[in-house]
Each structure stands twice: as structure tokens, then as C-alpha cells.
């Protein structure tokens, strides 16, 4: 049968509309959607038939029937209405996974977001007077309590926080920074580029691995606007190194009336060494050392929504509040609601560790992870052509935090000669709730460190479905 004959077999739109399936699709979506779907599918069929490399041998003529076309229309419309950003199962073992949305919110934070989404809110209004209020008042007191700072402010991410601080404190002035702290953050953004956008001028001192107090002081001129310290939270320089303690830098800077700014990056509120994690400087330690302004992220080690949190001296925070850039960088009601709920959990640190998912995953024992792995394994069927095993492995924290730290975990490994690990990973990502895994030694790895208890049954069902299709 030639191409002309095949094209004639494609039903007319009215003939397709007369099918019973058409009515159901129209009721589920709309007549306009149905017509769009029919045109899309039939146009694709024509394009395929008219292609130079068309092969009738490999072409399914059943696809030209009205019923089959309507099946394709249903798939097309389902994909059209499926959200591009959807819930996913993180089985990568990277706890703060930037590409998968970083930190999960605590239940109370998610509920707070839902409440302000469904109702008007007291975002920027004073309950007592009924007049306009302060957008940031809902979080300022709790931030000050947790960090010991005089004042605080919140913007939409940590890069924005650094930009605002430098623009308000050191625009058209020189900012002195150690060469070893010129970090690159996610998306290939670098500290020098952020500084340039703020209007501050970069002055590098020291070497990659060593910087001394005298390096900072020798760089001071009449144009010096600030000293900037950047915590290298996403990498480490080890071995023959030297850095300047915050207290020493602050003492000499303040004698010269120079403010000291610190970008803590992932920003941790409480020390987690008692849970087996290495030392990381806390926000309160920076404030206690006399740092004038400290910036850090809300959605990394804090375990809240994306936000850039700024804490420090009241006189400098006031400058930030009156800077026109703040308007462009301000956070919305959803961020503030989630952040307030997250921060309030920190009033009782045991509550925070138990209820903030990021902290819970970082501090839970390997035995708890093993229990999830065993539960998952119990839901899986046996397959002759697949080898499924529970094994020990190591997970990572991610999000530019604890770069050298590995956490004990348990994983499900899947190995087969029927299908490559890459193909298997692809199929799992196409699930209704996409599953993201990793590959190690040619085996697919499902890391239970980052799989939530409520996701176990769904994860097992999707794995079973994919493996059955390959048997």
C-alpha cells in the first residue's frame, strides 16, 4: 500500500468525533481540547507517512483507526495538563538536592503556606491599628532570638542577600576579600560577579590557600567600604593553609570604622556535631564574634523555603530596609509563612530535628534507613532476570553543604543483563510521580536515605511495573 492510500485511511475529524470515546474525552476536558488533540495526532500521522525515511513495514496501520487516534488524543491531553513541575521521589541519596527543590518543608510549614494560599492574610497589616504594617515582622523576632542578632531581614535567596548588603553598605567602594574565598555557587554564579552587580569594587588579598590579617589591613584605603568573609561551605582547602579568625578581623576592622560582612552560605542554626556530623560555623557564632552583617540561605541546612536571611547590627539593617533594591528582592507571603513556621520549630531543637525533614534525614541513624530499605524490598516481586539486593552505601548532604561528608545509608541495587541501568533510570523518571535514582558500578541505585516513609509503597509499585514490562 502506497503513501496516498495510507493517507486516505486517516479518518475525517467528524468521523472521529462520532466515536463514543470522543464524548468522554470532551466531558473530561473540553470540545476545544478534543479538537486540538485530534488535529495534533492526525497531523503527526501525516508527517510520519510523508517522511523520506518512512517504512510501511514498521508502520502500525492500526494507529490510523479512529479508536486508536482517540487513545493517542487522551495521552496528548493528559501530557498537556500534567504539571511540568510535579512531585518527585528523590532516591539519589543527595539530601539537599538543588535540582529536586532542595529542602522539604515540615508539615507545619506546608500547612502555613496552604493557609495563606486559601485565605487573605496579615502579610503587611497591623492587627491592632488596622493600618499598614511591616512585611517582615512575622519572622524578625524569632530570627533575632535564634541568632542573637540585633536585627534581621529576609530576601528571596542568599545571592540576593549578599547583593543587597554590598549595594547598601559598599556601593562605589572597595570590598576586601580573601582570594581563597572567591567561590562559585550554583548556576555558575561567582562571588566577584555578584559583587560587581552590587556596585562594589573587589579587592583580592592573600593567596588561594593562605591569608593573614596583615593582608586585609594592607589593602585598606580611603575607598575601603567593607571586609567580606565567605564561608567555603561547598568546598574545602586542606593542608598548608591559614585563615583569619572572625574576632581578629572584626577587632581591627572596627578600629578603622570598617564593617565586616560574612556570607555563611548554607547557614546552620545549631551545631550538629553531637549527631556525628563535622563542625560547621553557626550563625550565632558569627554574630557573637562581632560580624556586622551575616547572610545565609533558608532552604539548605535550615530546612525551610528558599530565602536569603540577613542578620546583624541594627544600624546596618536599617540601611538595607531603606535601599530601593529591597523592593525588587522582597519575599512573598508563601515564603514568609513557611519560614516563620520552620523557625518556630527551632525554639525546641528536639522538635526541629524530628519535624524538619532535612534535619531528620541528616541526623537519623543508618538503622532507620535500613528499615525503610527492608520495607521497600518486602513489597517487590521476584524476577528471574533481575538481581535485587539491599546493600550498605554512602549518601551526600548536597546543597553546597558539608562537601567532604558522607552519610551511612542503605540502598536497593538493581542489576540485569536485559536492560541497562541508564534505560531503567529513564523509565523510572517517566513514572506518574518521577523517580530519580543514581548509577554506580553499572547498577541502578535506589537510596533510601532520601526516600520518605509515605513514598515506599508507591516506589515499590513503580519499580515492579517497570521490571514486569522488561521480563
From TrEMBL:
It comes from the Bacteria. This is L-seryl-tRNA(Sec) selenium transferase. It catalyses: L-seryl-tRNA(Sec) + selenophosphate + H(+) = L-selenocysteinyl-tRNA(Sec) + phosphate. One of its GO terms (molecular function) is L-seryl-tRNA(Sec) selenium transferase activity. It is found in: Cytoplasm. PANTHER family: L-SERYL-TRNA(SEC) SELENIUM TRANSFERASE (PTHR32328). Belongs to the SelA family. It is an enzyme of class 2 (transferase). Converts seryl-tRNA(Sec) to selenocysteinyl-tRNA(Sec) required for selenoprotein biosynthesis. It comes from Halanaerobium saccharolyticum. Its EC number is 2.9.1.1. Its cofactor is pyridoxal 5'-phosphate. It holds the Pfam family SelA. Pathway: Aminoacyl-tRNA biosynthesis; selenocysteinyl-tRNA(Sec) biosynthesis; selenocysteinyl-tRNA(Sec) from L-seryl-tRNA(Sec) (bacterial route): step 1/1. Its main location: cytoplasm. GO terms for biological process: conversion of seryl-tRNAsec to selenocys-tRNAsec; selenocysteine incorporation. The keyword Ribosomal protein does not apply. Keywords: Cytoplasm, Protein biosynthesis, Pyridoxal phosphate, Selenium, Transferase.
